[in-house]
Design a protein that fits this description.
The complex is a heterodimer of chains A (231) and B (156). Chain A is an alpha+beta fold and 231 residues long. Chain A contains seven helices and twelve strands. In chain A, strands 2-3-4-5-12-11-8-7 form an eight-stranded antiparallel β-sheet. Chain A has a four-stranded mixed β-sheet with strand order 1-6-9-10. The chains are: A alpha+beta (231), B mainly alpha (156).
Chain lengths: 231, 156
Amino acid sequence: MPELEAALTRLGRDVEFPPTPDLASVLRGRLERPRSWRRPAAIALALLVVAIGAVLAVPPARTAILDWLGLRNVSVVRVDELPPARPLSRLDLGRQVSLAEARRRAPWLLVPDDKPASVYVSNSLPGGTVTLLWGTPSHVQLLLTEVEGMVYIEKIVQTGAEVEPVDIGRAGAWFQGRHVVMFSDRNGTFHENRGRLAASTLVWQVGDVTLRLEGRISKEEALRIGRTASN
Amino acid sequence: MRAHQGIAFRTAYLVAGNASDAEDAAQDGFVKAYRALGRFRAGSPFRPWLLQIVANEARNRRRSSGRRAALSLRAAAEESSGDAAPSPEGALLAGEDRERLLAAVNGLREEERLVIACRFFLELSEEETAAALDLRLGTVKSRTSRALEHLREAYA
């Protein structure tokens, strides 16, 4: 009888529940143990709410930190221990296509001067993802992933790892060393099978396109390649 | 996380039966969920997964603690019908009727009360209810309809 069900639903709005405690701030204390921060970036990062919140919602902390880094669609979560994640070598990059085909599908694509060895497109994220790869899928030298639109990239880094704002013609950030990367859409739905272990990464944003360049390279090398990326 | 902490806490409260266990359960659940984030399946909705972890924590606490409190109406809710012209639906379930219906819910067997509270008070989906109460989807459906049947008998 729908009437009874509707009555129960209305009744539920008047049922007393104890006020919800502020779990976010308690958890922040449990998941992060701030140390003395050497860089302003690190101070800003310490403000972030725990990973789940950062992935799932767009809390004010996210906005604050990302504005500071100049990257709207990237958030950073600092933790004592990285969550389980698969390594870079076992990636599902999507379907291999020619560079011309990738450009046709993603007119916003930016390509560095050094042309990639292979190009992949994937629809695992809304709006699609294009990945340019240098090396081979089993021996990745360099990976440039580009997404357009309201896709969030989560970077989960260990306490003490360095995250540095960099100037790549635009605002960018350099993540030194291993970290976990996850992609989520605006609703917080994850669009990769699981978190993925990433090497040092340069992240920057050009208009609505978020680019992440990842590999075993120095910051200077990453900046050099990144600066040449053009449409 | 703020988006989910309310529903997670209230689910934990229903399962654990008291606020302090619920708070502990929600906290530990969130930490565990965080640590397991890497095993989260792509594309699947987050909330059932989170609720499952939190409710499981609440169940573990429940076993070692005492009897849970009966649900009651908010004090303010008693007056709310006077604020504005009651909607036709609201008029169907004013004052005393609400008390009687809630008493009928509180009088259900625990397993049925939980299903009713999750489905209608927290407005969880059947999938979320199944995850939170660690039941199969079919069990949620059959238990809900049985509980509604019992409510109809008790409330009539």
